[in-house]
Write a structure and sequence with these properties.
Two copies of one chain form a homodimer.
Chain A lengths: L27 H11 L3 E3 L7 E3 L1 H20 L3 E2 L5 E3 H4 L3 H7 L4 E6 L2 E9 L4 H11 L8 E10 L13 E11 L2 H21 L5 E5 L11 E8 L5 E11 L1 H5 L3 E3 L5 E3 L1 E8 L1 H10 L16 E5 L4 H19 L16 E3 L6 H10 L4 E5 L1 H6 L1 E6 L9 E5 H6 L1 H23 L1 E2 L3 H7 L8 E4 L4 H11 L2 E6 L10 E2 L6 E2 L2 E5 L3
Parallel strand pairs in A: 3-7, 15-16, 15-17, 20-21
Antiparallel strand pairs in A: 1-2, 4-6, 5-6, 7-8, 8-14, 9-10, 9-22, 10-11, 11-14, 12-13, 17-18, 18-19, 21-25, 22-25, 23-24
């Protein structure tokens, strides 16, 4: 690919429109908000406490997440269904830990149709209870098992401190709910769906994750154990990006979900639940974006490429537009990534012909995270070339490149695939560079001083007391006990806080 | 296609499982409920007033509706977004007609996070108010217009009388909301989206509709005018299947959505909204289904074909299964219908290898509305043929047919397309056979006596008084004032009730 600057392609930074983006260095939380605002992903709802409005560019990312994950859920045998958004208040109290975990966060409907309700309803904070109720009606025998359903829905948790995408009172998510004949089958499901989440995070979001098990104090309210994927944000904080719970027979008992076993006995079903939410978009933003704004891996990008016409006369304008539309049509016909069974993604290209300066367009599309920018002027047309600039310099392209139109089109999907792989590689490198292995409490305190955080592999004595003490003293939590193959090889040692024996290191960090 | 019966294919009706389906003749409302239950589309929630649980087979139909319509919305320039499910109660009161229409049906959240709220929220019954609020923040100039957004969401209206899919307190829908610089642009949008709904209903749902305008008393609360598509159910009742509203500047004024015009003046935006809901599934059921259960047009069918293995020995079983999987794979690779831009549907085939009698399987899949049933036994294998039975006898196939495997696969998509067209033709014929033109009040009373209903084209004097009088006396409402090309040619006449002059006939019926 020849590189040859051309005076018709202006330098960066011209025609600034929109607001300022803080640097990550100067003010990370502000940077996060600025990136969201400037990419027009969402805005705080303001008139509804802790809610946000998901704007078209943000919602389009959610649609990408939905369609890819939905195909994975269906490929693993799950079917979508829909359960009521309102849950009788008494349902929430049927599982002891569950009510303790969720009661403080409930939004309650007390009146409807102009009358006070006999029993209030709560807006679902999660649906284990009401789905448990229907499972008890649908399941009679081992022949009805496994029952594998998933729901795409809005849920509400009245959180005190909210942050767009990461924690909002209302959020969008999917919640898988399954029932099995044996604990073994349930555990296999928990692992399978954790695997789906981990694969999706890395393959599609290019977001590396650590897979592990939550400690007893961090698990889902009502679960025996919770598995999770944890991602490292650029400020060193951890983001719990997806969870998969072994509910054991807790909800089966609470909602009397009994079945006749193959041997003819009666038993309670073994249930699981698993979910990811619009929080993933927060993780996506904080994994890849830079001080210039949003960065999107191609498989998460609602728009893959923007073509900016460059011209000085109406004649040139007309000629460039014809070429731009021709290139758009050629790219749009390509398949993106190997299509998986029952899911096909499409390449989206925008020709930005608005009557504003090219520099302003460059600036805007950069902030919106479009992976590929194509500039097209009369000299390019004459040479049969396009001027290409990738959103981030990587092996998929760096700086402005001049490539023949035919070669550009022929290599476009390969370029996207390389860019996707490069973003994952860069994110992995950042994670590895930040991961630390700590052995003394002094090191620990220094590592987590003030607002500082990172992924720290430390020994822990396995007690809730030590865990609580560490959290109280440093705000650091145990993100997970890693699965085999995740983190350092399991070796015994001594707890970083108590000095008592520890079977292996666990992942510690401050978290969103 | 040779037709040759084979003794290995059993007769219908064997191995009945599941409940009874009432005949339409004997008890139409019961038939409707029975079809839903036996096809496992949904069930009444019971513990949540007026709600339903949408079961996997029903939700899969909703997904078909969503994906096809969503591609049409995007192709007409709309983008999806998401707004909060809770609306400050005061918002609802800002548009006078709107509050009058919706206040009696609101569900109200008065407590959240363990505290009483200062201002209650309502669960959205529709989102004109809250979206109007954000439009006022987003729109400054004519350059921001048109603003074209759509939301897929759940909404809640506390209805007294509910019926699965047709009217439930919570339902799923999409609501388009657009803002325009001129009334002309708004009206064009209203017509465009009515066109999308009409095309979708007929092309995809195979449900013929009459397109028209609502009378002032039937329009949306807060609109200047409402356009609608009306479908005729098999009991002669009308179903309002989709609406598209010209909101004029009503919500623009209520939420101060002003913009600078190209001439530099300030004006309120012209808004539209339009929606269809899970109610469409009720319409789909009542358009095509018969006394044997659900009938689905292929473009609405989550499963297009089921293959039932027929065998007497384990050897035969193994051989038949290999062939069944081969046929499934070949069919699954086919494209269904011409793929429209940015949307691809997939063919879904089930090989039903459950250890139950073939007759029981036939019965079950028939009730679930699967368009094509394939029986496959060792004799078929020997002859290289399959035994095909369509869900309904039409030009796409009637009775059991024996077709070579190669021909069956090669003609499969054509067979589906013919079946799709045939279901629309049959529904159109039923509609035409039922449509009547009435000129005297005696005829009218006889036509609508008791529970009777049909599509009746009658003259009306254009007054709300006469409309109300007809409704009070007969429960018949004016479904719409038809658009050009819909219904009989517009000719003046005299009102069927008042005898006063009428410019043209309107569509009257009892309605769901």
């Amino acid at each position: 690919m020849a590189k040859k600057p051309s005076d018709e392609h202006e330098q960066e930074g011209g025609g600034k429109i929109g607001g300022k983006i803080a640097t990550r260095e100067a003010d990370y939380p502000q940077w996060y908000q600025d990136v969201i605002r400037e990419a027009e992903l969402a805005e705080p709802a303001k008139v509804v406490k802790g809610c946000m409005v998901i704007k078209p560019h943000g919602y389009a990312i959610w649609e990408k997440i939905q369609r890819d994950l939905d195909a994975r859920f269906k490929a693993t045998g799950h079917k979508n269904a829909y359960f009521p958004v309102l849950i009788p208040q008494s349902f929430i109290t049927k599982e002891a830990e569950h009510v303790e975990g969720f009661a403080p966060e409930l939004a309650v409907v007390t009146h409807a149709g102009g009358e006070k309700l006999e029993e209030p309803y709560v807006i679902r904070p999660t649906s284990e209870t009401i789905i448990g109720y229907y499972f008890s009606k649908w399941i009679e025998s081992y022949r009805d098992l496994p029952l594998l359903v998933n729901q795409w829905a809005n849920v509400m948790r009245w959180e005190k401190r909210t942050r767009m995408f990461l924690r909002t009172t209302e959020f969008l998510w999917q919640e898988g709910h399954t029932a099995h004949a044996t604990h073994e089958d349930g555990l296999a499901e928990v692992q399978r769906m954790l695997g789906v989440y981990g694969d999706f995070a890395e393959e599609v979001m290019a977001m590396p994750v650590i897979r592990g098990e939550k400690t007893a104090s961090e698990k889902f309210a009502g679960a025996l154990t919770s598995m999770c994927i944890e991602a490292l944000m650029q400020d060193g904080k951890a983001l719990q990006a997806g969870t998969s719970h072994d509910l054991g027979q807790n909800f089966g008992r609470a909602f009397d979900v009994q079945f006749q076993t193959e041997a003819g006995a009666l038993d309670y079903v073994w249930q699981t639940s698993w979910g990811v939410s619009t929080r993933l978009i927060g993780g996506l933003i904080m994994t890849h974006s830079d001080d210039a704004g949003l960065v999107l891996p191609p498989r998460m990008a609602p728009i893959h490429a923007v073509i900016v016409p460059i011209f000085r006369s109406e004649e040139e304008h007309a000629a460039v537009l014809v070429a731009a539309e021709r290139i758009k049509a050629a790219l749009s016909d390509l398949d993106i990534a190997p299509p998986r069974a029952r899911y096909r993604d499409f390449i989206e290209v925008v020709v930005d012909d608005r009557p504003i300066r090219p520099g302003a367009k460059f600036y805007e599309w950069e902030r919106r995270g479009v992976p590929v920018r194509i500039e097209l002027g009369p000299k390019d047309l004459a040479k049969g070339q396009v001027c290409v600039k990738m959103r981030v310099d990587t092996a998929a392209g760096s700086g402005k490149e001049f490539v023949s139109e035919a070669e550009f089109i022929a290599t476009f999907t390969a370029r996207l695939a390389t860019f996707q792989a490069e973003l994952l590689r860069l994110a992995r490198e950042r994670m590895r560079a930040r991961e630390v292995t700590l052995d003394t409490w002094d090191e620990f305190l220094a590592t987590f001083a003030g607002d500082k955080s990172t992924f720290a592999w430390c020994h822990w004595d396995g007690t809730a007391e030590t865990e609580a003490r560490i959290k109280e003293e440093t705000k650091v939590t145990i993100r997970c006990i890693p699965l085999p193959g995740q983190g350092p090889d399991p070796q015994p040692g001594v707890c970083i806080r108590s000095g008592r024996p520890s079977p292996r290191r666990v992942l510690m960090a401050k978290a969103y």
